[in-house]
Amino acid sequence: MRGVGSLSALSGDCQRGFSPAPACAPPPPRVSPPGLGQTMASSEEDGAGGGSLEEKEKGRKRRLGALATAWLIGYNIAMTAGWLVLAIAMARFYMQKGTYKGLYKTIQKTLKFFQTFAVSRIFMVWFITHSIKQIQNEESVILYLVVWTVTEITRYSFYTFNLLNHLPYFIKWARYNFFIILYPVGVAGELLTIYAALPYVKKTGIFSLRLPNKYNVSFDYYYFLIIVMASYIPLFPQLYFHMLWQRRKVLHGEVTVEKDD
């Protein structure tokens, strides 16, 4: 009994801390609930993984943005150079010949290439001036050619320098001032050219589809051109006044805030 009492006393002393350290058994280790540590670690890894995915996505977008910017810079440089080539060719032709007769025939291949590549003014180039050769020496053709050339050199050089974040003030000024005169003159040249083409279109029936035919459909290119000319009336003012608004905003810092309906 005494031995048992001594063991009990020793055990009690160990619990109270009176027994020397070697005689007392160490407390059992504390065990975390199963899966808790693993869950926390997994959460941290998931967070780290998500962050790296976001960084990869941002990096991919930056690379795509850089490629797109490089392509646009190259495109605008090429277009600027192309219109400069046209301007030099027109000036050289006039200085050598002393007349504009035959000018269109000389520069038509370069003109068709760059206008088609830009997907603009295709109608005037291919379906009017190219198709109706009798009007190629009209003064109105030279008028819109000169306007197009000055406008496109200014426009594409503006885009190029703007993408390079180094826009000279003169280029910006030219972009938002030349159009005040060039746009109305260019529109006049285009309208006069279409008007000059009307008699030849009516006489030859080019691009027209007469009845009877197997499709039972008719199309008169002559009246279509008249409709095209009439469409300039509502469309040109919209474009022109939009450019005037842009001019005020860019050159004078005026910003118009549109109110919600």
From TrEMBL:
Keyword Signal part of the UniProt annotation: no
Annotated membrane topology: Multi-pass membrane protein
Top-level class of the enzyme under EC nomenclature: lyase
Biased composition (Pro residues): 23-32
Family: Belongs to the very long-chain fatty acids dehydratase HACD family.
GO biological process: fatty acid elongation; sphingolipid biosynthetic process; very long-chain fatty acid biosynthetic process
Pfam families assigned to the protein according to its UniProt record, in alphabetical order: PTPLA
Protein name: Very-long-chain (3R)-3-hydroxyacyl-CoA dehydratase
Taxonomic lineage of the native organism: Eukaryota, Metazoa, Chordata, Craniata, Vertebrata
Free-text function comment from the UniProt entry: Catalyzes the third of the four reactions of the long-chain fatty acids elongation cycle. This endoplasmic reticulum-bound enzymatic process, allows the addition of two carbons to the chain of long- and very long-chain fatty acids/VLCFAs per cycle. This enzyme catalyzes the dehydration of the 3-hydroxyacyl-CoA intermediate into trans-2,3-enoyl-CoA, within each cycle of fatty acid elongation. Thereby, it participates to the production of VLCFAs of different chain lengths that are involved in multiple biological processes as precursors of membrane lipids and lipid mediators.
Chain positions covered by the region annotation Disordered: 18-57
Native source species: Chelydra serpentina
Coiled-coil intervals: none
